[in-house]
Amino acid sequence: MGTHLSKAKLEANQTNAKASTGPVNTLSTRYNAVKHGLLSQGVIELDELDYHSLLSSVNESLKPIGPIETALSDTSVCALFD
Description:
Layout: H1 7-19, H2 32-36, H3 48-62, H4 66-81
Helix pairs in contact: 3-4
């Protein structure tokens, strides 16, 4: 299902791509995906031991089966830390 580009459009795209250098300094944008993206509810600044202890306790209680139940269990642990 490819789209056919005209020769002029292809050349323009290639010229524009060469001029695009991306961000100069990524220090300020490095964690945007974590703060604003799908992973925004992920654990960032928590005591890792406390997190894993709670995760183990929740998993022992809920006994998730399969990836969907495991993801729901992980999400519930993240919600508890909020």
